[in-house]
Known about the structure:
Elements: H1 10-13, H2 25-41, H3 45-54, H4 59-68, H5 77-81, H6 106-116, H7 130-139, H8 155-159, E1 163-166, E2 181-184, H9 186-192, H10 197-200
Antiparallel strand pairs: 1-2
Residues 18, 120, 122-123, 125, 184-185, 187-188 line the site of zinc ion (ZN).
Amino acid sequence: MNEYPSPNSEEYLALRSCLREPITEMYEVQHLLGEAADAHLAGDGKKAAIAIKAADIPIIRDWIESLWGDKNKYPEKVHFLRIREVSNLQPSLPKGKRVKARQPSKQVAAMVIENFGWHCAYCGIGLINRAARRQLLEAYPEALRWGRKNDDKHVAFMAMDNEFDHVTPHSRGGNNNIENLVPSCAPCNCGKENWTLEQLGLIDPRKKTVMPSDWDGLVRLL
Ligand SMILES: [Zn+2]
């Protein structure tokens, strides 16, 4: 039985929001981490630590790796990428010809978040502000694993890391202007790599309606 659509089938070529829909556990951990932040603010460190630990659900690592993992180690990745032929593809530029800065300025980053909220513009999962993560890491080093290697990182915090995706890839001349940036979770951003929206069959995330949400990226901790 083949659970993936065959290459060039209608399903394979259909436009989509993201490479792979988040697994249900992603919504569970967002809820748990919201609870952890509230407990922390209420002075209940024990409850916060328990919720943080509970959000470190191993199966999330599989979801992450299926998007950004090495394709030899995670061959199912090709079924999510679904690369298609595109004419007039913007060419990949040599390093010296790319926009120098790889990341947006703080000011632009803040404006992008203001426009889109603390959600991945592709798959929609909640993102976590890095300063808020650092704060929780300091308070709960036992519960919030954050080692050097990915295997030693808390999977929910790793998946929900607030990155910025260059809609036109940086490697293809994409700049750091607000028009070219959207907030993205780490798996969507890394999975997209240097492919264009057209190559991946992705709907332009800038054209989607931003839904109202209570999720604040845990900035209430700051
Ligand atoms: Zn995402």
